[in-house]
Amino acid sequence: MAGTGIFSYAPAIALFPLVAFVVALVFGKYMPKKGAIAGIFATAGSLLLSLVMFAAVAGGEVYHETLYEWTSGEITSQVGAEEIEFTFGILLDPLSTLMLVIVSLVALLVHVFSLGYMNAEGETGLPRYYAELGLFTFSMLAFVFADNLLMAFMFFELVGLCSYLLIGFWFRTQSAPSAAKKAFLVTRFGDYFFLIGVVAIAATFGTVAFAGDDSFVTAAETAIDDGTQLFGFDAQTWVTITGLLVLGGVIGKSAQFPLHTWLPDAMEGPTTVSALIHAATMVAAGVYLVARMFGYYALSPTALAIIAFVGGFTALFAATMGVVKDDIKQVLAYSTISQYGYMMLGLGVGGYVAGVFHLMNHAFFKALLFLGAGAVIVLMHHEQDMWKMGGLKNKAPVTYYTFLAGALALAGIVPFSGFWSKDEILYDALIVGLEQPVILAAYAMGLVAVFFTGFYTFRMVFLTFHGEPRSEMAEDPHPVGWAIKVPLITLGVLATVAGLANLAPVAKLLSIDITFLEFWLDGEYGAVEGLTYHDYHETVPFEEGYITSETVTMLLGAGVSLGLALAGALTAHSLYNVPEPSRHMTKLGGAYTTLRSNYYQDEFQVWLAEGLTLPIARAANWFDQTVIDGTVNAVSSVSLFGSDRVKHVQTGIVTNYAALLVAGFLGLLVVLGLYGGWF
Amino acid sequence: MTVAVEYYVLLSMGLFCIGLFGVLTRRNALMFLMSVELMLNAANINLIAFSFYHGNLTGQVFALFTMALAAAEVAVGLGIILVLYRNFRDVDVTVPTTMRW
Fold it and tell me: Which of A18, A257, A379, A536 has its CA 20 to 30 A from that of A239?
């Protein structure tokens, strides 16, 4: 594991974008493309290095090295270590190298796309935009290769900061700063739990390392095996508690119920930023964290079940809201929430490979869809309402066909990438669900969400591209340049073929070894000990059940989900693929209003703030002002009043002082006399 | 003939009380100073009387110290009285009350 050879360049993966950030910030104004070139070169460098690392891991090497030590100190932890070190380190294993490639690839494409999207519009503040984009990429890459929980937390926060900056890019409008604030506050709310979790883990196990013999995962495993009591709980309960605390950060960043409300509002940022946030950075960070410390979650069936249930519920919940949105970006935003719900479901049932697979596929097709939406917005002269679009199919074929590829992948239609990963998640959920009622409920919600996904995806496609143009802008679309087309085509190809990475059902049916991603994550090539699918699978305590046989279960599950996806797509076809589509959703009556208002989640949160928190805060303030301050003020006013009386003893007349002296002396004599028994 | 020590104590007490009375009732700073001298002398008489009574010289040495201190005190006291007079055109000790609250 020495930092020799090619791995010594690993820090540069993250440092390139950091340099680009500085360059764009300082010199961006004077550069020809306002910092875009620096960003493109930096992310291209990161991508290149990531691919080299990927190849090195494929060659059987891994890299785990501490680069910098913040501080170390003695600690009286509950188990094991007597010394704790807080360090910066790099961990390059199959999972992190895969993610590095995804992140740097999407970041590169977003940079290129920005040339066509941002630079073409006479936008001001471009150096700021590219600088923030660079910082965002830097923090995400550093988060991905972090080798300990504290470093992960630091970059997790930095990712949050960057999303705040980028969502609020158009800070002169009213909505963008408000959306940025909301995103920051809601995700920070989750991050508080994360922080407490980090502290709890550090205090319990005396280490925050992800991998190796002195990792907290190993320590927790030993504690559970030994039946150690941790802070008055048995070890497994304590693992569940700390795991769930960390999960708070995940729920905030990955926009899971109930902290998902920031994400649709985040559409106020530039569309390119949405692509980056949704596909590879901010939102992916949460799910990636669960995958990163999966060994820890695997120790606790309760935590896993909660992850799975939250994921399944979010998948369905968000999908139903996506059905009635008119803004093309809003539909995609709800779809993102829903898709990350699937990933959580997959991870929660122990389907580590399935979850990571979907994370990868989703990165490609959601980046594609957002960039496609960006292209549509350019075509439409900055109109986002789908009801004003229509008929773009023939006028912008590249955009249409790439978007369609993304949509098919998102809806989970065979053979596009989304089908394979979503199906694998649902399959893993099903086999565990047959033994566990809670998981079965989560599976059922995920399954129903497939129908809604198919429906809203194709509703979006049909409304945008099919039918007759419904506005002047749609009749005369603005042409798009190569900078927009190249990323779209790249991602379009990836969204179509990425499923090849893990054709699990085909592999099982034909008994051939083509589940490459599973081999990859299982340490078939290089792997850090303890961080393989194999190890996780042994730790996860769930039983698996089958309907008659494995093959039948698989075909049945795949058939049902594909059928539902097609049914959703066909429903959308019959309702919206007509020359003059109408707002069928209004026929739903009360349900429509509820969905339109996102189940009144925002209202509920505002009520929570104004109706509950504010009175409590007022009461606390009153208590503080009257009781606490009152007591303090009373004490001081007693001495003030007392001294006000007593000060009159001081007359300034010498005679009075002398008299007081004498009186005091006489008094002393009398007292001494009484005690001494003179009288 | 030896005088009993009680008489010296009585004399000293009388002198002291006269001095105290002067301090508490007089307004003139000079009278003040004189009263303080009386009180110091009362203390001196006591010291010498007890020194004689016990048959050692410590008390007498202390009386000499007191006299030296009294002389020094008068020097300081007169200085204060001069300043007092310069500032207030009076030697009445009840006039300068500015150094209170």
Answer: A257
User: Is-contact A424 A357, C-beta < 8 A?
Assistant: yes
Instruction: Answer for the pair A265, A342: CB distance below 8 angstroms, yes or no.
Output: no
SS (H, E, C) A16-70: HHHHHHHHHHHHHHHCCCCCHHHHHHHHHHHHHHHHHHHHHHHCCCCEEEEEEEE
- The rounded Cα A468 to chain-centroid distance in angstroms is 38
- Measure CB to CB from residue B97 to each of A647, A648, A651 and give the nearest one: A651
Q: Which residues contact B8 (CB under 8 A, 6 or more apart)?
A: B45, B46, B48, B49
ipTM: 0.84
Q: How far is B1 from chain A (nearest CA, A)?
A: 33
Q: Give the distance, in angstroms, between the CA of residue A3 and the centroid of all CA atoms in the same chain.
A: 30
- Inter-chain residue contact A652 with B100, CB threshold 8 Å: yes
Angle of helix A175-205 relative to helix A235-253, nearest 10 degrees, comes to 160
Number of helical H runs and strand E runs in chain B: 3, 0
User: d(Cα A182, Cα A196) in Å, to the nearest integer?
Assistant: 22
What are the tokens at A15?
A: 């440092």
B24·A655 Cβ contact <8 A: yes
pLDDT digits (tens, 9 = 90+) for A567-607: 888 888 888 877 777 776 666 667 777 777 777 777 787 88
CB-CB under 8 Å, B101 with A650: yes
| Other beta carbons within 10 Å of B81 | 18
Q: Give Cα separations from B38 to A449, A482, A600, B17, B47 (angstroms).
A: 109, 114, 96, 9, 14
DSSP secondary structure, A389-456, as one string: ----TTT-HHHHHHHHHHHHHHHT-TTSHHHHHHHHHHHHHHHHHTT-HHHHHHHHHHHHHHHHHHHH
Return the HEC string of A620-655: HHHHHHHHHHHHHHHHHHHHHHHHHHHHHHCCCCHH
List, in order of start, the domains of chain B with CATH numbers: 5-88 (1.10.287.3510)
Whats the size of chain A, residue-wise? Answer: 679
Nearest partner of A12 among A58, A61, A49, judged by Cα? A49
Q: Report how far Cα A152 is from the mean position of its chain's Cα atoms.
A: 12
Asked whether the beta carbons of residue B20 and residue A662 sit closer than 8 angstroms, the reply is yes
Joined together, the tokens standing for residue A199 give 């502290």
User: For A171, which DSSP code?
Assistant: T
* pTM, to two decimals: 0.78
Q: Provide the 3-class DSSP secondary structure of residue B92.
A: strand
- pLDDT tens track for A238-293: 889 999 999 988 898 888 888 888 888 888 888 888 888 888 888 888 899 998 88
| Nearest CB neighbour to A653, from listed B25, B94, B101 | B94
